[in-house]
Sequence to fold (114 residues):
Amino acid sequence: MSTDRLPRIADSHDPFWPRVDLGRLHERLKLQQPVSDAALELAARCAVIAAASEFARWRAALRERGYQRLEDVAGHDHGRALRVCYTRFVEAAILHTFGCTPCRAKSRRGLEHA
Fold:
């Protein structure tokens, strides 16, 4: 499968949440089975919609404080943490869709995460 054919992004149609680059996502997930571009795109779109729903209260609270996008709070520790949680939720939902278990990868700090 060539990642050159993958659409560039998946999003939840809510501009608050960051877009997910499907090419980078495919590389990061290191799926253990062949997955078509279309299947990955569909799984990613469903995952970002589910993540937006799951984190809707956070979005509402941040919008009440004047933030229009998650990127607006990226300079704060809590904003960065929320982005990581959002991204990991999307990744886990995609892995779940394909019946995969997350592999343990070392973070930049040398810690292992499942």
Observations:
- The chain is about 50% helix and 5% strand.
